[in-house]
Amino acid sequence: IGPYELTATLQGFTTYRQTGLPLQVGASPIVNVALKVGTLNESITVTAAAQLVETRSTAVGTVVNEQQMVGLPLDGRQPSQLVLLAGAAVSQPGGLIGSQRQYPSAVAISVAGGSGNSTIYLVDGAYNNDPVNNIGQPMPFPDALQEFKVETGGRPARYGIYTGATVNAGTKSGTNAFHGTMFEFLRDSRFNEINKFATASDGLNRNQFGGTLGGPVMKNRMFFFGGVQISRNRQTPSDLQAIVPTAAMRAGDFTTVASPQCNSGTQVNLGAPFVGNRIDPSQFSPVARQLLDRLPVSTDPCGRITYSVPDNNDEQQGVTRLDWQATDTLRFFGRYYIANYDRAPGYDGKNLLLASGSGLGLDNRVQTVSVGNDYVLTPTLISATRFGYARSRILRAQGSQLPSWTQLGSNVWTAAEQDGLRFINLSVTNGFPGAGLPGDFSSQTYQLSQDFDWVRGAHQISFGGSWIQPGLDVNGPFQANGIFTFNGTRVGGGRIGLADMMLGLPSQFRQGGNQLVGQQLNYFGAYVQDVWRVSDRLTINAGVRWEPYLAATDDYEFYSRFSREWFDQGRRSRVFTNAPAGLMFAGDEGFTEKGMKTNNLNQVAPRLGFAWDP
Question: Quick check: helix, strand or coil at residue 380?
Answer without folding.
Answer: coil
